[in-house]
Amino acid sequence: MPNAEPPPVVIAEGIGHITRYFLREVGSVFWFVVNTFEETLERIQRGRLPFRAASFFRHTERVGVDSVPLVGLVSFFLGLTMALLTGYQLQRFGTERLIPGLVAIAFTRELGPLLTGIMIAARIGAAFTAELGTMQVSEEVEAIEAMGIGPLRFLVAPRMLALVLLMPCLSTVSNIAAIFASSLVCKAFFSIAFPYFLDLVKDSLLIRDIITGILKSFLFGLLIAAIACYRGLTVKGGAAGVGTSTTSSVVSAITAVIGFDTLYNIVYTTFYPT
Amino acid sequence: MSTPLQMVELRDVHMRFEEKKVLDGVSLKVEPRERLVIMGQSGGGKSTILRLILGTLRPDSGSIFFKQFEITRLSRRKLQRVRRHIGMVFQYSALLSSRNVRDNVALPLEELTDKSGSEIDKIVDEKLELVGMGDSKELLPEELSGGMRKRVALARALVLDPELLLLDEPSAGLDPVIASVIDELIISLSEKSKVTSITATHEMDSAFRIATRMAMLYQGTIIEEAKPEEFKHSKNPVVAQFVSGSTEGPILEGSLDAITKK
Q1: Interface residue A148 vs chain B (CB under 8 A)
Q2: From CA A199, how far away is CA A186, in angstroms rounded?
Q3: Is A20 inside any structural domain?
Q4: How many domains does chain A have?
Q5: CB spacing of B80 vs A148 below 8 angstroms
Q6: Partner residue facing B92 (CB), from A134, A139, A150
Q7: Taking CB atoms and an 8 Å cut-off, how many pairs form between chains A and B?
């Protein structure tokens, strides 16, 4: 009868393979970003625009303007829920005036960038991977390369820049939507009027909370764009490959966003304890 | 060391994709203004040779020269500059699906030159007229037939006035008239504009029409290089079978036996 349990060596080997694959992928994405920067800077050094403004604005519209309803709505609902749930708990101790500060700090520092990151990874990351992946399998990327045009500069740089610049804006939208939602809950259920709500938010929010959130958003934007574009340009295996890469792109980007958020928080709280 | 007399030279190039050995010591020289046709079976490595010359693939060993540049040793930046002198027509045209015909052809000019909008328009019009696609400027690639796409791809490859033109199956899937038009265009380009061309094809009619020299790629090596007339009457059994399209001969010997037995 065959032994049902795999021997320890097989397990260790499996872990080794996964770790090697993970490290190789991390390295590849890192060099992908470095090469994109390099290709873009080379172009700028030659005194030329790295990509056309129209191409950049097309991406900013898609990443930014078109994502506002989704980000705004989801954050609004989450703000409502958070204010309601925390409000009833705090009310028992008569401290419901803490709700505005709680929601404001939680969103500006943590939930705004994180939620936006997850939503954008799913909405835009998937689109970037599918788009570039389709171009890759239909030889369009190779054709661009064949003309002597750097595909990283031409295809990746405008997408990456759009995402990096627009993520903080979308996080801000998320923060405002959530804070606005909690102000409605405070008014309706806990008798906190708007002017008082605003005072409480202003009193509790620190500049460093806002800066932390903004910095995180930049980082998440870069991460999502890098992973999505890398996965798109490394698609293999036709239409099925595009599908697999798109799924993998969304999963990796969301995991990376949450992972980096945790890492960021650990580093931040270690060096700048509250 | 390379001699600048050659437009392209491959020296003992080896290439394998995973387990499959595609090129097994290919050496080839292409003189300026020559129209070399590389023939061989589908999947035999013809397109790979074109991609190696273009530098989008790197060989496992061997060297490839374009004029005085050793493609295999160039940095990415220099390779991009060299590629501006090479035009490539892909087998499936590889037009950018999100851009219309005009924008596809204009792309190299917009990205790589300092020409003004009106100059670009003029060149694009001229190249599109050359391939007979002047009235389809606003159409998207998905609205074009296979032959039209190929002609647009050719116009795009010619837009920077390349010295070397690489054509991957230029007449595959085209009707005989359009195929002849494209063949004539390739011939006139080399005669009037001194463009050197390397064409990978297994369409015999087209090959004999275009070629000033032919090379047969078989099992990863060039087994015969000759002028079309000599090629037609080659004594090499593989070449003879390929030219005649016969089932009798060394190509696919084992596989054909298996098919007939079934």
Answers
A1: yes
A2: 13
A3: no
A4: 1
A5: yes
A6: A139
A7: 58
Collapsed DSSP state (helix, strand, coil) of residue B92: coil
pTM of the model: 0.88
- Mutation for A interface: B66, B80, B104, most A CBs within 10 A: B80
Q: Which residues of A touch B78 (CB under 8 A)?
A: none
Residue A238's CB is within 10 A of a number of other CB atoms, namely: 12
Decide the pairing of beta strands B61-66 and B69-70: antiparallel
Closest CA to A128 of A34, A51, A224, A256: A224
Q: Cβ A146–B83 below 8 Å, yes or no?
A: yes
What are chain B's domains? 1-83+202-262 (3.40.50.300)
Nearest CB partner across the interface for A143, out of B81, B90, B110: B90
pLDDT tens across the length of chain B (262 residues)? 444 578 999 999 999 988 888 999 999 999 998 999 999 888 888 999 999 999 999 999 999 999 989 998 998 889 999 999 999 999 889 999 999 999 999 999 999 998 999 999 999 999 999 888 888 899 999 999 888 898 899 999 999 999 999 999 888 778 888 888 888 888 988 888 889 999 998 888 889 999 999 999 988 899 989 899 988 888 888 888 888 777 777 777 655 555 555 5
What chain A residue is nearest to B156 in terms of C-alpha separation? A147
Report the distance separating Cα A176 and Cα A196, nearest Å: 17
User: Do residues A232 and A88 touch, judged by C-beta distance below 8 A?
Assistant: no
Residue A265 lies in a domain: yes
C-beta atoms of B95 and A140 within 8 A: yes
On whether residue A49 sits in a domain, the answer given is no
B51 CB neighbours in chain A (<8 A) are 142
Q: Domain range spanning residue A262? A: 54-271
Q: Do B88 and A146 touch (CB under 8 A)?
A: yes
Which H helix or E strand runs over B66? strand B61-66
Find the CB nearest A148 among B83, B97, B110.
Answer: B83
Residue A35 lies in a domain: no
Report the complex ipTM.
Answer: 0.87
